[in-house]
Backbone:
């Protein structure tokens, strides 16, 4: 399993991507989905998740909706229009980063 | 899927409140997260009762849950400042600032106060009124993070203005400018507070 620090900078992109694909989600659901898709390699802690969600909401990329579910209130997040545009931008940024890393870690032999 | 009872949810909520998670809007999300995790454990076959599962969950996760309270508070403070700034150039804020200044001018002329006395009197009266209203809101049992920070900012800045600006030579020379700025700032704060109260009422269904 990769060190948690390696995922730190990508958390925002991961959250945006999950919400882009799944519509409306609540905090716990986001952590479980990330865990499921990554085969339990990515475990987002509540200490990391909620500050990230609140920052995205404050920046206007997410909007929240409260619902009463199972004897308590639950906060659902979904992307705003600005958030949808930003998701595409962040995902392509991360893909470029991964390509760069792969080029460094697995350099193609040059013919000289 | 096993569901927790209202009493279980209330227990989690009270526990978090006792650990200084005083803001309602932050606490409901944490309560939901903890409750969802416990329900998931019960559904996966954990046969212990709610209190035992809750205890072992908190032993493992309490530090992480409470670690970021200061981050939440700082984000709430930033949101509060942003709200005041955005509302400072809202047409309603500008309108009510002008109306307030016209009322003050009329009041000064009607009561035949001198300019210096008028300024001190008006500013003191405004701050005292605002102080009493805001303390009433702050004393409410249910606290909301951004609203709480917004009210605190309003009180602290007004107190600073009152304490440092009122008797200063700057205030004597630029009295009307100062009063206009104080009124403008406070109208923006009041609008922000009212907007936020409405937002929380709508979002949190209270």
Residues:
């Amino acid at each position: 399993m990769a060190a948690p620090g390696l995922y730190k900078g990508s958390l925002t992109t991961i959250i945006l991507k999950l919400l882009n694909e799944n519509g409306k989600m609540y905090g716990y659901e986001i952590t479980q989905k990330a865990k499921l898709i990554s085969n339990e390699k990515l475990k987002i802690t509540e200490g990391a998740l909620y500050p990230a969600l609140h920052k995205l909401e404050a920046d206007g990329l997410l909007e929240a909706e409260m619902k009463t579910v199972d004897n308590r209130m639950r906060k659902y997040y979904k992307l705003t229009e600005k958030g949808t545009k930003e998701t595409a931008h962040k995902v392509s940024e991360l893909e470029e980063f991964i390509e760069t890393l792969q080029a460094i870690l697995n350099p193609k032999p040059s013919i000289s | 899927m096993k569901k927790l009872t209202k009493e279980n949810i209330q227990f989690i909520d009270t526990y978090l409140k006792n650990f200084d998670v005083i803001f309602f809007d932050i606490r409901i999300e944490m309560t939901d997260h903890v409750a969802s995790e416990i329900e998931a454990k019960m559904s996966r076959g954990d046969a212990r009762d709610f209190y035992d599962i809750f205890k072992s969950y908190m032993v493992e996760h309490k530090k992480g849950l409470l670690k970021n309270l200061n981050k939440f508070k700082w984000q709430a403070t930033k949101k509060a400042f942003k709200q005041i700034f955005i509302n400072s150039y809202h047409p309603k804020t500008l309108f009510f600032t002008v109306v307030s200044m016209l009322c003050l001018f009329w009041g000064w002329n009607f009561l035949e106060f001198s300019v210096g006395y008028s300024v001190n009197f008006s500013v003191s009266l405004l701050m005292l009124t605002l102080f009493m209203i805001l303390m009433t809101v702050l004393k409410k049992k249910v606290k909301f993070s951004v609203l709480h920070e917004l009210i605190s900012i309003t009180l602290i800045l007004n107190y600073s203005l009152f304490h440092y600006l009122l008797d200063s030579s700057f205030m004597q020379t630029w009295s009307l400018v100062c009063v206009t700025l104080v009124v403008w700032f406070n109208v923006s704060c009041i609008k922000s507070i009212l907007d936020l109260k409405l937002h929380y009422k709508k979002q949190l269904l209270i």
Summary: Residues 46 and 90 of chain A are 22 Å apart (CA to CA). Chain A has five helices and three strands. Residues 81-105 of chain A form the longest helix (25 residues).
